Amino acid sequence: MLKIVKDHFRISQSGFNQVFCLLAAIAFVCLFADTAFSGPKQGKEKIKAVIIGDRLVDMAYNLGVVPEAMVARCIWPAMAGKVSTVKSLGCPRSIVTKRKGDVVRYAEEKGIKWILIEKSEDFCILAPDADPMNIALQLKDKGFKLDFVDFSQGLEPALVQAGKLLSKEAEADKLIKSYRSLLEKTKKKMPQKKLGKKVLVLHGIARGKTGKFFIQAEAPDGYSDRFFINPLGCVNVAGLIEHKGVKVTKGYFTIRKIAEIIEAKPDVIIITGKSLPVQKAINKAAKNNKALLEIPAVKNREIYSLPLYIDSEVIEYPYMLLLWLSALS
To answer: What is the CATH number of domain 45-187?
Structure first.
């Protein structure tokens, strides 16, 4: 879902804070709605299997199937949404370190004999050692039926493989056709020239139910750069506020004071994660620091909330690209 937090009328600078307060209220409603209505859809066939790898879990879901348990990256938004009812055994990284053996123990306890494993190049660019294929070594000679779906040759061959393994060939064929159709439509809308926008991606995180929050910036060369910012001819300006000594963890670094973004002078601010923390922080800081109001993204109200994309929901990529194109055009 694309949540646009840009108003379409001109306002005076004195009224800007009021608009941000209104936007914060809207964001709260959106967050509540997301919590209430983003749960797993009904009618999915549950199979007695464990699926390892978020792309494969998502593909199975789109084919109408969910496993009894999964191993997927914890930062994948669907973990708290459409696949939240599937038992999570941990992320691929933890399963080969501190939770080593958990997949075997769970499968043996539940009498599960079938394990499907995703094979991908660059499974996670933020954590190179988080590879589902590393888990396969734990499962050999344990009495399991191991099947692999190879994503390294592209989405369509992987869909064909998954369709056969899950006895969903007809569904896989439909998905391929719909994917091709949307991808073609998206390509036709791509700009002929580079958009040339300076983009800052901010990620709002709430600390449980404490009412406290913090904000991170997505460092250059992450997922947003690879799949959206670079293809659209834009540049991620987070590097301009990534000061010496700031620790980048899994592609993000914490912003201690929102006024730091003044140095980046972004034309567009994209919010992933929770919108409210970012909106509240800008609103509060702008009361005492009018320079925030002169940032092009703030001054021109080019602030948008988009779903976090980490290359897990590969079937939805053409749609996600359309959302980014809409925000940056």
So the answer is: 3.40.50.1980
